[in-house]
Design goal:
mainly alpha, DNA-binding, homodimer, 3-stranded antiparallel beta sheet
Chain lengths: 145, 145
DNA sequence: TATTGTTATACTCTATAACTATA
DNA sequence: TATAGTTATAGAGTATAACAATA
């Protein structure tokens, strides 16, 4: 629209809009798949954050999810009801409850990972080279913590 | 990690993860800015969808937001309370309520648009050429409706 | 009968504050 | 007193079902 060589001041805004739209669409699709696995978006995200090989306190999960500790309680409640996670009192500090991913939890994590890759189908119109360009460009986007 | 020339089967999944993370971070930042303008994320999105030059039925807004009509009612309630939108009964079909963006609504839309561009600051590490590459790659991503 | 907008209701997500049990 | 987890509560967002007014 503006001059061809002019540095388009709105380019960043345009890309921001694209990223928001795509992120939204991706989220929609992912949430639908996750629901078919019997999980809500938030519980799926919580389970994805847990390292099956390194049980950690609920407090750490709150940090990873960037939310209040009080929110973690109902999330872990549901994961525990579903048999995907176990709460264990830490013998060294009985205030702490360690979150352990069960075998069923590991299998669900694998399923979630697969779903994520499948949702990448919206990238279907890009060939291998274009995908690499896109990945490298996205890697340069500074994500504020 | 795999062979250099091998078509990485996980590339799409990796990019999907990047897009989700960036989309989430963008959303967080945007929501915070929007809150400073006195709007919730959903009302801001609703206002952004409205064309100030083409008043349309509430039903159309539900379609644009891809949500149920019943959700539109409280959103428009708040936009109307804030003086940003007006409901007008359509004389040609008295069932329909047309949503009109007020002058204050137009100014808020402009502010929202500016906020979107400012959130593009997370793209700061990319130069003009890289931004163009990114934009063109994102344009090829097929957004499912 | 069908459609527009609304109301009623429910569930999820997230935030703050107060509580308990440990330390 | 400080911290980990919980409970209570509230607001926002979104879904379904039922309703009134209108077509």
């Amino acid at each position: 629209m503006a001059g061809v060589q002019a540095p388009s001041p709105d380019l960043a805004g345009e890309i921001t809009g694209q990223l928001l739209d795509i992120g939204y669409a991706l989220r929609q699709r992912l949430d639908a798949e996750v629901a078919r696995l019997g999980l809500t978006p938030a519980t799926a995200r919580a389970l994805s954050e847990l390292d099956p090989d390194r049980p950690s306190p609920a407090r750490d999960l709150a940090l990873q999810l960037d939310c209040d500790r009080s929110n973690v309680t109902p999330l872990v409640d549901r994961l525990e009801e579903a048999g995907l996670v176990e709460r264990r009192v830490d013998p060294e500090d009985r205030r702490v409850k360690t979150l352990v991913v069960t075998e069923a939890g590991r299998r669900m994590q694998a399923r979630l990972h697969r779903v994520l890759a499948e949702c990448g189908a919206i990238l279907g119109d890009l060939d291998e080279a274009e995908l690499r360009v896109l990945r490298d460009a996205l890697a340069k986007v500074a994500i504020p913590q």
